[in-house]
């Protein structure tokens, strides 16, 4: 009877609809090695399938209790989603609440939405989280990078609302709402707290864009008051850019609106070695997490077993952390970092000669 | 001994890395040496400190400029009309920083100056200075940024409580003239490549218009290479491979970020010269000032870096057509940096502003 009660409670907790404004990761109190979690996997195009295979192998060797549901991007536009992603794929992510996405190349053409845009809008992915830390063993000009960029993903300058006023004059709208800013600020502080970070910096240009970025800052300040143990500061974006390239150790967690987030997160990716090594995770309403690899699909090396799976592997690690499987996440992350640090097995883009499968095997050996 | 005494100046020039080159092809017109008036706005924070440095150095050089000083502060509502009249009369202005207060109400005075005088091009020269070690070598980037429109139009309003809109305006007129200025600059300075920075994959109409104007102007300069790069990729490339960039032309906001990033990798905003120029007027200031204007500690301890404004004033001297004075100032500043003895805190040293100024004056020949 106790087990039955336990099972009922588990069901309620995992299927119950959380409050619409809830954005905190749905805690899975009974996630143990016995209960498998279903996750959606989009291998993607180009090198996608190879690196997805790497992830599956590493997870199997590490005994991670995840069962993958693979979905592929079709070659026909699904009228229900107006894109190449089918309704079933999206439902699967909504149901499972976690997903991992490989690189997707949006086919050129009209009449359909871009794949990333579809995912973002349909799943209401409002925050993009990119942890950037220098990989020991892969030397770049910066050795002490250890920061997280959290970028608001739905509004801001990327609302896509442009129009031509008269010939030769174009207006583009930048929209900032209180709701979206509060949401992303809450997530940023929550993330900082759960990951033991001490400082959150809000990046803005409120001296020029007083009302829009001013609203963003106001929301951040409100949330900051609820977390007195976390230091909160505000940095103007040009100052931030300069400080990042001179001394990236000054920053801890950065929270920013859409456009600045795009630029700063790519800048930080450049500091640690490029998009091929950067993990990324999109957080949606109701605790949905879709981890993704932000690099391209590299069609020129597809199928040649040369791709570097690090970005997708590190993204899957951040997915595990979202699921509170911290011990597994740490083990896999350590294995990856040790493999790269050793330097014996490195793929071509890091300056080595290993194949994808060799690299994956080395990581499994390190587990 | 006699030989060592004679070899000392030679050794000094060898250390300085440049021989005392005097250009043999400068012929001024009669009357060119008449002193020119320049409006000087010390501004807030470290502004008065660094403009004072420039005044001292100009005095020491006996440069044919005299300054008309005006008091303007960042929290004033408008730039006072007598200042604007003075700038319109003199056509050249040197400015320390004006601190724009956060929050609502006041339109940035810097923007006001730029719009009223139509200073549509902002130029920041980011290059590695010899002797100043940074993480990146071979940086030689000029960032030309559109200064009047774009995201900084200041057109914002609250639609309903909790929803705010801001307009970004891009016009063909402004995009065309900034593109023309960028290519003209490249042509006049023998630069090989112009890169346009944009985000046209997302903001298709707005940045698309900017790119269209750049492409049109590029066809008129077939000897200069032209390419385009998306702004997030651009920042990533700037921190990993900055040597691929030469002249960059950007709209307003991206220009701000790219200029500050490029200045950061080349040594910091304390050393990069820059100015704002329009068809009729020119205002020179620190190239990319990233909010250091209001740093009180710097003001109290007088450790602001005057190098940027000194180099910008050399730019100003060149603009006023006093090339040999500009050369002397530029060489003196570069020699001080090369020797590395007098450096302010942001360059890793411990000198005060005054010490650096004295060193520069001592190095003037």
UniProtKB/TrEMBL annotation, chain A:
<keyword id="KW-0520">NAD</keyword>
<dbReference type="InterPro" id="IPR004434">
    <property type="entry name" value="Isocitrate_DH_NAD"/>
</dbReference>
<keyword id="KW-0809">Transit peptide</keyword>
<feature type="domain" description="Isopropylmalate dehydrogenase-like">
    <location>
        <begin position="36"/>
        <end position="363"/>
    </location>
</feature>
<keyword id="KW-0560">Oxidoreductase</keyword>
<keyword id="KW-0460">Magnesium</keyword>
<keyword id="KW-0479">Metal-binding</keyword>
<dbReference type="InterPro" id="IPR024084">
    <property type="entry name" value="IsoPropMal-DH-like_dom"/>
</dbReference>
<dbReference type="Pfam" id="PF00180">
    <property type="entry name" value="Iso_dh"/>
</dbReference>
<dbReference type="InterPro" id="IPR019818">
    <property type="entry name" value="IsoCit/isopropylmalate_DH_CS"/>
</dbReference>
<comment type="similarity">
    <text>Belongs to the isocitrate and isopropylmalate dehydrogenases family.</text>
</comment>
<protein>
    <recommendedName>
        <fullName>Isopropylmalate dehydrogenase-like domain-containing protein</fullName>
    </recommendedName>
</protein>
From TrEMBL, chain B:
<dbReference type="InterPro" id="IPR004434">
    <property type="entry name" value="Isocitrate_DH_NAD"/>
</dbReference>
<dbReference type="Pfam" id="PF00180">
    <property type="entry name" value="Iso_dh"/>
</dbReference>
<dbReference type="InterPro" id="IPR024084">
    <property type="entry name" value="IsoPropMal-DH-like_dom"/>
</dbReference>
<protein>
    <recommendedName>
        <fullName>Isopropylmalate dehydrogenase-like domain-containing protein</fullName>
    </recommendedName>
</protein>
<keyword id="KW-0809">Transit peptide</keyword>
<feature type="domain" description="Isopropylmalate dehydrogenase-like">
    <location>
        <begin position="37"/>
        <end position="360"/>
    </location>
</feature>
<comment type="similarity">
    <text>Belongs to the isocitrate and isopropylmalate dehydrogenases family.</text>
</comment>
């Amino acid at each position: 009877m106790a087990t039955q009660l336990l099972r009922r409670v588990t069901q309620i907790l995992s299927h119950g609809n959380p409050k619409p404004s809830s954005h905190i990761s749905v805690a899975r109190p009974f996630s143990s090695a016995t209960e498998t979690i279903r996750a959606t996997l989009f291998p993607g195009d180009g090198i996608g399938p190879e690196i997805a295979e790497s992830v599956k192998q590493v997870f199997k060797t590490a005994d991670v209790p995840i069962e993958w549901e693979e979905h592929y991007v079709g070659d026909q536009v699904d009228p229900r989603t107006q894109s190449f992603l089918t309704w079933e794929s999206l439902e699967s992510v909504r149901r499972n609440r976690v997903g991992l996405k490989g690189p997707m190349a949006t086919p050129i053409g009209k009449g359909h939405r871009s794949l990333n845009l579809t995912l973002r809008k349909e799943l209401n992915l409002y925050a993009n989280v990119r942890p950037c830390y220098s990989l020991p063993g892969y030397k770049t000009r910066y050795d002490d990078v250890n920061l997280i960029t959290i970028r608001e993903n739905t509004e801001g300058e990327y609302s896509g609302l442009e129009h031509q006023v008269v010939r030769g004059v174009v207006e583009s709208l930048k929209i900032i709402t209180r709701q979206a800013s509060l949401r992303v600020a809450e997530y940023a502080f929550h993330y900082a707290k759960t990951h033991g970070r001490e400082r959150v910096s809000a990046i803005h240009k409120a001296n020029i864009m007083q009302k829009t970025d001013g609203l963003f800052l106001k929301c951040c300040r409100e949330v900051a008051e609820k977390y007195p143990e976390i230091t909160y500061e505000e940095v103007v974006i040009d100052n931030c850019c300069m400080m990042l390239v001179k001394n990236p150790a000054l920053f801890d967690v950065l929270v920013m609106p859409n456009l600045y987030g795009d630029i700063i997160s790519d800048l930080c990716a450049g500091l640690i070695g490029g998009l091929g090594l950067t993990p990324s995770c999109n957080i949606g309403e109701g605790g949905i997490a879709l981890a993704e690899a932000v690099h391209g699909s590299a069609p020129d090396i597809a199928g040649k077993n040369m791709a570097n799976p690090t970005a997708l592997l590190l993204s899957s690690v951040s997915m595990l952390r979202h699921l509170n499987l911290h011990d597994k996440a740490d083990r896999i992350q350590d294995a990856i970092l040790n493999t790269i640090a050793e330097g014996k097995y490195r793929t071509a883009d890091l300056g080595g000669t290993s194949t994808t499968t060799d690299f994956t095997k080395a990581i499994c050996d390190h587990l | 001994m006699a030989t060592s005494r004679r070899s000392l100046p030679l050794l000094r020039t060898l250390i300085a890395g440049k021989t005392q080159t005097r250009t043999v092809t400068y012929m001024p017109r009669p009357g060119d040496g008449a002193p020119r008036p320049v409006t000087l706005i010390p501004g807030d924070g470290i502004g008065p400190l660094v403009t004072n440095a420039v005044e001292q150095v100009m005095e020491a050089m006996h440069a044919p400029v005299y300054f008309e000083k005006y008091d303007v502060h960042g929290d004033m509502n408008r730039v006072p009309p007598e200042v604007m009249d003075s700038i319109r009369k003199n056509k050249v202005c040197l400015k320390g920083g004006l601190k724009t207060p956060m929050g609502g109400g006041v339109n940035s005075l810097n923007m006001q100056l730029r719009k009223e005088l139509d200073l549509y091009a902002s130029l920041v020269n980011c290059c590695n200075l010899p002797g100043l070690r940074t993480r990146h070598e071979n940086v030689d980037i000029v960032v030309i940024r559109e200064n009047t429109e774009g995201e900084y139009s200041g057109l914002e309003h609250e639609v309903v409580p909790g929803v705010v809109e801001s307009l970004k305006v891009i016009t063909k007129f402004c995009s065309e003239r900034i593109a023309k200025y960028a290519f003209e600059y490249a042509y006049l300075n023998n630069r090989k490549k112009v890169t346009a920075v944009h985000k046209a994959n997302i903001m298709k109409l707005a940045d698309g218009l900017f790119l269209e104007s750049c492409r049109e102007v590029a066809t008129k300069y077939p000897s200069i290479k032209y390419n385009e790069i998306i702004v997030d990729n651009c920042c990533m490339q700037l921190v990993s491979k900055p040597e691929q960039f030469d002249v960059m032309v950007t709209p307003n906001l991206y220009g701000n970020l790219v200029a500050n990033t490029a200045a950061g990798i080349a040594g910091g905003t304390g050393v990069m010269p820059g100015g704002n120029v329009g068809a009729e007027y020119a205002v020179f200031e620190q190239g990319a000032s990233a909010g250091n204007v209001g740093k009180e500690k710097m003001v109290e301890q007088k450790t602001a870096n005057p190098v940027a404004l000194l180099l910008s004033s050399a730019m100003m001297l060149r603009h006023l057509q006093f090339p040999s004075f500009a050369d002397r100032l530029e060489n003196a500043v570069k020699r001080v940096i090369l020797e590395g003895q007098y450096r302010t805190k942001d360059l890793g040293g411990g000198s005060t502003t005054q010490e650096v100024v004295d060193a520069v004056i001592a190095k003037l020949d």
